[in-house]
Amino acid sequence: MLNSINFRNIIILILTFIAFSNLSISAQYDSQFEKLTIKDGLSSNDVWDVVQDKYGLLWIATKDGINIYDGYNFKIY
Fold first, then answer.
1. What's the pTM value of the predicted model, to 2 decimals?
2. Which residues contact residue 77 at a Cβ distance below 8 angstroms, ignoring those fewer than 6 apart?
3. Please, are residues 45 and 38 in contact by the beta-carbon 8 Å criterion?
4. Type and span of the H or E element at 3
5. Rounded Cα gap, residues 60 and 37, in angstroms
6. Highest-confidence range of 3-7, 12-16, 29-33, by mean pLDDT?
């Protein structure tokens, strides 16, 4: 009985630590989102997938093709 109580307390302590450490990490980043549409040069507003490559380019899969976004302009394939 004593071992199960100690084990439960340790698990609760670990989960509490993880929860608070995640809060402090997420508080360090100020995320900003920008909505991109066909008015900005995207080939379609129906986006299926978005991937960022090692160069920072966004590869956006739409129903009308693959779009590469460099932060300023789209190139459509």
1. 0.58
2. 65, 66, 67, 68
3. yes
4. helix 2-26
5. 12
6. 12-16
